[in-house]
Write a structure and sequence with these properties.
By secondary structure, the chain is α+β, with helices and mostly antiparallel strands. The protein has a single domain, classed as Roll (Structural Genomics Hypothetical 15.5 Kd Protein In mrcA-pckA Intergenic Region, Chain A), CATH 3.10.290.10. It is built from 2 helices and 4 strands; from the N terminus they run βααβββ. It has a 4-stranded antiparallel sheet. Helix 1 crosses helix 2.
Length: about 70
């Protein structure tokens, strides 16, 4: 199975929220822990730059999320 990428422009109601929280709310089928892992591995970018989970994107920022397969348990 392949990975997928999605782009998202930060709206007013999304701005200034922690990145991991914002993503888990926008993509409810994925957990906050999943997004924390993606962020730590460099699979989430803001305006083309790697970020930290505590970073708070601003209005108009472009998020690029490269969804990865999770390892089987």
């Amino acid at each position: 199975m392949e990975t997928s990428t999605d782009n998202l422009i930060v709206s007013d109601e999304m701005a200034n929220d922690r990145l991991d929280r914002l993503l888990s709310q926008h993509y409810p089928t994925y957990s906050r822990t999943y997004f924390q892992s993606l962020i730590e591995q460099g699979f989430v970018l803001i305006n083309g730059l790697p970020v930290k989970k505590k970073d708070k994107p601003k209005l108009g920022d472009e998020l690029e999320i490269c969804f990865q397969l999770t390892p089987e348990i």
